[in-house]
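in:
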């Protein structure tokens, strides 16, 4: 079985009866804890118009997390590139890399990270997204290059910065693009599991080696909820289930505490929909998590597993990440 790295995806979740200030401090606490446990990286995801997620100003929050940590890589998982000017993103991440050398990642996606009306408010043009997204990645590469010093438009800071770019996806489209451009690929298995198998196959079979990335590199993002017992983990997971239930109900309220019986909250059709979206979720005690991870890695042979954890209580959230790290470390001793 291929050895894999372990990382964190944080959505800066806003919880009932907590402030956004509380949210940011808990994200920093998680990042520091993940750093102590030797997680590889800590990514934050751009979303908009959601009362449950506070990571809309992604680059600002990355700076806050990087400033409060020492060695863990910090980045975007991702910046939704068509929401922005390529030059502005190059300047923002060039600034971050200049402040925190060798620690900044730039993961980019093409989705809006929000609803249609908010996407329009962000200035997106849906008619040109498919051609705009790859062009913007090329623009970023140009702005970051030393050769761009002779250009009439320069990213200062940004020019000459060694900032790795990762292409994010939840379908096969971005797999083709990442393979063609010779860039690492991160798949959103935590909410869009259906195309993951095909996406990984397409990426590996069509990979075009690049100078920075001579070999394909795959990150799979999944949901993870670990606890001392299976029963406790299943109860903690009801916060995750409610969060996704709110998505399909178009109810963007803050995260809810766990409930004793989730079947009192959803109907059978909603349950089926949520469970399909959460197909790649690892929930259980240490032994259960170990078996789930072994089965997953034997099937997919990923280079990195990125865990996102929807747990209401911060202490239990930290404990879950500790269990995952202990399990993975034990698998490769």
């Amino acid at each position: 079985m291929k050895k894999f790295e372990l990382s964190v995806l944080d959505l800066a979740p806003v919880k009932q009866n907590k402030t956004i200030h509380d949210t940011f401090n808990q994200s920093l606490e998680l990042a520091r804890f993940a750093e102590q446990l030797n997680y590889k990286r800590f990514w934050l995801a751009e979303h908009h118009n959601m009362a449950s997620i506070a990571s809309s100003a992604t680059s600002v929050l990355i700076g806050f997390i990087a400033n409060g940590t020492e060695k863990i890589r910090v980045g975007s998982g991702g910046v939704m590139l068509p929401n922005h000017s390529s030059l502005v993103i190059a300047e923002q991440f060039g600034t971050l890399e200049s402040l925190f050398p060798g620690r900044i990642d730039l993961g980019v996606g093409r989705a809006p990270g929000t609803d249609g009306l908010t996407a329009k408010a962000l200035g997106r043009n849906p008619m040109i997204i498919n051609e705009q997204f790859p062009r913007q990645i090329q623009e970023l590469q140009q702005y970051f290059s030393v050769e761009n010093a002779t250009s009439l438009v320069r990213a200062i800071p940004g020019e000459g910065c060694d900032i790795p770019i990762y292409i994010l996806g939840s379908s096969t489209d971005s797999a083709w693009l990442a393979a063609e451009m010779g860039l690492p690929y991160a798949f959103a298995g935590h909410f869009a599991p259906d195309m993951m198998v095909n996406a990984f196959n397409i990426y590996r079979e069509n990979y075009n080696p690049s100078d920075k990335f001579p070999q394909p590199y795959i990150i799979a993002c999944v949901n993870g909820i670990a606890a001392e017992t299976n029963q406790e983990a299943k109860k903690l997971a009801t916060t995750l289930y409610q969060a996704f239930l709110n998505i399909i109900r178009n109810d963007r309220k803050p995260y809810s505490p766990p409930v004793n019986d989730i079947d009192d909250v959803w109907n059978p059709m909603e349950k089926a929909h949520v469970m399909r979206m959460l197909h790649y979720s690892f929930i259980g005690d240490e032994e259960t998590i170990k078996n789930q991870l072994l089965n997953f890695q034997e099937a997919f042979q990923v280079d990195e597993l990125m865990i996102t954890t929807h747990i209401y209580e911060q202490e239990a959230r930290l404990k879950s990440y500790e269990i995952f790290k202990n399990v993975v470390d034990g698998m490769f001793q």
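note: The CA atoms of residues 157 and 294 lie 43 Å apart.
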